[in-house]
Amino acid sequence: MIIVTEINELKKLLNNKTAKIGFVPTMGSLHDGHISLIKKARKENDILVASIFVNPTQFLAGEDLSKYPRKDEADKKICEFCDVDYLFMPDITTMYSNDEVLVKAPKLNSFILEGECRPGHFDGVLQIVLKLFNIVNPTNVYFGKKDAQQLSLIRQMVNDFYLDVNIVECEIVREIDGLAYSSRNVYLSKNERTEALKISQAIKLAAKLIGKGELNVDIITKEMQRSLTSEMISIEYIHITNKNFKSIKTVEIGNTIVLVAVKIGTTRLIDNIWI
Ligand code: AMP
Description:
By secondary structure, this protein is of the alpha/beta class. The chain folds into two domains: 2-170, HUPs (Rossmann fold, 3-Layer(aba) Sandwich), CATH 3.40.50.620; 183-270, Pantoate--beta-alanine Ligase, Chain: A,domain 2 (2-Layer Sandwich), CATH 3.30.1300.10. The chain has helices spanning 7-13, 32-44, 72-81, 92-95, 107-110, 114-117, 121-136, 148-160, 190-211, 217-228, and strands spanning 2-4, 21-26, 47-52, 86-88, 140-144, 166-170, 233-242, 256-264, 267-274. Helix 7 packs across helix 8 (148-160). It is globular, with a radius of gyration of 19 Å. 32% of the residues are buried.
C-alpha cells in the first residue's frame, strides 16, 4: 500500500486508462462499517483507493471537528490489511484554498432532516466529494446506506453534473447487539452505549410493524417515538420517507426509508432501515 498526501502524486499513480478503480472515501477512525465498504470495493475493482480526510466544510460551528476521533496509525494498518493500493490522506491546505468555487446542495432535499439539524452540512459534503471524484476519477465509488440522505444527494450531484462514476450502495453494518457502527460511538459512556441500543430497537420495531401489515406512517412514527422515549435520549427526528426523500403517508414496500437521529448526551447518532 502506498500512502499519498499530494493530489498530483495520486493522479500520476492512477494514470492507468484501462484499470477499474474502486474508491472508498472516509473520515477515518475506521470501523467494521468502513471495512465492509473497502472489502466490497477490493473484490469489484482492479485498483483500490481509500481516502481519510476529516472534511472541515461539512462541520458546523460548534460541532465536533476539533475532537472528531482520529486514529491514523491504526487506520493505515487496517487499510494495508484490507489490501488497499493507495491510501489518500491529504491535509486541509492541500484540499482547500481560501476563496474557491462552491458547490450548493439542492434546496429541497438538503434542508430537511440532517440538513435541517445541520444547515450547510451537505454543501460541504458535496464540495469534498466532487473534489475527490475529480482527483481519483473512480469507476466505482462506495457509500454506506447509513448516511442515506448523503447518498441520495451524492447521486443527485452525479446526475446533475453528468459525472461518470458508478455509485455502489453498501448495507449498514451493526455490532452484535444492533448498534450501527459509527466513528462517534467512542464518545458514548457505558450507560449511554446501553441507551443507544434503543435506536436500532426502534428501527427494528418499525420493520416489525410494517412486516405485520401496518403501513400508516403516523402510527409507525408514534410507536417508534414511544420506544425511543428516555431521559437520556433527545430525539432530533424520526422520519419515514420514500427513497427520493419525499414525504409519504403510507409505507411503499421497496421504496421507503425509516430514519432516526438522536442525541445521547452530546453525541449525535443516526440510523435507518430501507424497507
Ligand atoms: P464516514 O467516515 O463517517 O464519513 O463514513 C465513510 C463511509 O462509511 C460513508 O459512506 C458511510 O455511509 C459509511 N459508513 C459509516 N458507518 C457505516 C456502517 N455502520 N455501515 C456501513 N457503512 C457505514
